[in-house]
Amino acid sequence: MKKVFIFLLVTTLILSFIGTGYFLYLKAVKPAEIHKVVQPFYTDITRKTVASGTITPRKEIDMKSQVSGVVEKLYAQPGDQVKSGQILARIKIIPDVVMLNNAEMRLKAAVINFTNAEKEYQRQKLLFDDKVISEQDFLRFFLDYQLQQQELEAAENNLELIREGASLKAGTASNVVISTASGMVLDMPVKEGSFVIESNTFNEGTTIATVADMGDLIFEGNVDESEVGKLLEGMTLNLIIGALDREGITAELEYISPKGVELEGSIQFEIRAAVQLPDDIFLRAGYSANAEIILDQRQNVLAVNESDIITDKGKVFVEIEKGYQQFSRKEIKTGLSDGINIEILDGLIDADKIKSR
Predict the structure, then answer these.
(1) Are the beta carbons of 269 and 281 closer than 8 angstroms?
(2) Better-scored residue on pLDDT, 56 or 161
(3) Which of 17, 214, 230, 345 has the least CB density, counted as fewest CB within 10 Å?
(4) DSSP assignment of 53-95, as one string?
(5) 320: β partners
(6) Does residue 336 lie in a domain region?
(7) What pLDDT shows up at residue 62?
(8) Which of 35, 343, 298, 344 has the alpha carbon at shortest distance from 330?
């Protein structure tokens, strides 16, 4: 009985060992790989480059104050259409103490000089009427009277300009900001009560408003140096604007920069294109956009998926099926590629079957 038990135990262990080994063998053996085969096909291939940029007005003009002071009144707001010569803002002048004092002193001196000149003129006029003095002597006093009168008016106007920034007598108003162009107000970075400084030789001054013609827009973007040599002025750009779910907005390339600049490790060239704006759409300044530029295209040509080709030592191959799941390399000649499909110039026909990768 003991011998039978031992026999059964040994037999069980042997069978378990054989079963485990067979299982491991089956697990290690890989199933035969079945490769997918595809055929060349006819399609249109278009090679494009994409330039990233923004939509901006061709002319964007900053309106600045001619005087320093506080914004007393704004007569427009962003989005308004304005015309050239239209008043945008009025500035309340805070006069300089030294300038104000000098202007007041000049006016006082002008009043004294004019009063004396007027008295002397009246006295000399009586003498001239009585033929006591000659006309030549009289004209000298008359001329001095007129000069002192003009000086008085100038001193009054100067004081008024320093105090108010405007002179009704002289017909001038330096405290009024006037639009120098017609268009839309894009921005008014100041508010009523804000302090502003004048525009002069030493500083740009505070911008009161920015005005632009929103009917004349351009696309400004950058193209990589590897593509810029294929661009020509007059090419059509298809604009893709992220803020709009719309197609069909085009632009005509009108400028390619002669000098590149380094951006993020690559040389980029600036381009500009005139946006051909549809009548039923409004584009806002500053929209980001991508411009697709067609560099070359082929219609109804034989092609394969570019991932199915093999490049080796400067030559291009595909693997042709000679028998079921039996492949051999064949050299081919390729043409235009769009990054997905590539044109076949020689080496394949549409009936061939090639290994897909």
Answers:
(1) no
(2) 56
(3) 17
(4) EEEEES-EEEEE-SS-EEEEEE---TT-EE-TT-EEEEEEE--
(5) 328, 354
(6) yes
(7) 93
(8) 344
For residue 204, what is the enclosing H or E element? none
Positive or negative: CA dihedral 288, 266, 259, 254: negative
Please state, as a whole number, how many other Cβ atoms lie within 10 Å of the Cβ of residue 112: 12
Phi, psi at 139, each rounded to 5°: -60, -30
Number of domains the chain contains: 3
Would the pLDDT of 315 be above 70? yes
What is the rounded CA–CA span in Å between residue 86 and residue 69?
Answer: 20
What is the average pLDDT score of the chain? 84
Strands 183-187 and 172-173: unpaired
Is there a contact between 254 and 233 (Cβ–Cβ < 8 Å)? yes
The pTM of this model reads: 0.63
Tell me the CA distances in angstroms from 235 to 13, 73, 119, 238, one per residue in order: 82, 47, 80, 10
User: Do residue 122 and residue 245 come from a single domain?
Assistant: no
CA-CA distances (angstroms) from residue 233 to 125, 274, 293? 78, 11, 12
Q: Are 88 and 169 in a shared domain? A: yes
Query: What percent of the chain has a predicted confidence (pLDDT) above 70?
Result: 86
346 phi and psi angles, rounded to 5 deg: -160, 150
pLDDT tens track for 300-309: 999 999 998 8
From residue 330, alpha-carbon distances to 38, 316, 327, 353 in Å are 15, 8, 10, 12
The residue range of the domain holding 304 is 37-45+298-355
In which element (H, E) is residue 220 found? strand 217-224
* 204-253 pLDDT tens trace: 889 999 999 999 999 999 999 988 888 989 999 999 888 887 777 899 99
Give the C-alpha separation, 219 to 271, whole Å: 8
